[in-house]
Amino acid sequence: MAIPDLDALIAEVERARGGAGGAAAPDRGERIAALRAAVSLAERLRGLADDLVDGYVEHSRLQGCSWAQVGEALGITRQAAQQRYITPRGRYGPDEFAEEVCAAVTHMRQAALAHRNNFIGTEHVLYGLLTEDNSAVRHLVALGIPADSLRSRAQGSLVMGASQAVERIAWTPYTRKALTAAHELAAREESPICCRHLLLGLASLGRGTAADVLTGAA
Fold this sequence. Notes:
It contains eleven helices and two strands. The chain folds into two domains: 29-87; 94-217, Clp, N-terminal domain (Double Clp-N motif). It has a two-stranded parallel sheet with strand order 1-2. The protein is mainly alpha-helical. The mean pLDDT is 83. Helix 6 (122-129) packs antiparallel against helix 10 and helix 10 (195-205) crosses helix 11 (209-217). The chain has helices at 6-16, 28-62, 67-74, 78-85, 99-114, 122-129, 135-142, 147-156, 173-189, 195-205, 209-217, and strands spanning 119-120, 170-171. 65% of the residues lie in helices and 2% in strands.
């Protein structure tokens, strides 16, 4: 994969703000608009970079790597690595989930194993949510979005990997963020986390494979 250079990023900023290159010199308002577009793009890139490292830190820990080894790879101390990456991710009890979520999670894991993936990404979550009749499917139907075609698109987004079966499959940073958003939604409604909350949590991310699938269905 080619990493974009500075010229490519500048071109993306110009496209994002709708700039017309080569015209008269931009006024101050246009320069500020370009600056804001550059800041937005930089934030997206930083977010992607952080998510990439977060995911591989978690995978390293799941494979038995010590915090000292992780810290060495990151160029920081063991203590600094622990402080940075051991964050409150929510220890959810069984009573915090609706029963339908358990069935959906089973389908997520089965999809990951069937595709030899050692992670549960947003694509697995979306596919699992749409496999059986539940509150997520009913929410889509109420919005006039056909769940069957969306499930097919979600299934098509699953990519075959080369990982062997593992005892524990890690949730990626995006899926953990979706779960956190779902937990917040459920707390506001004073109800257990249901499949609809997870679906809305995926949609709230605004990026990731599931978000792309959902955007295409809107």
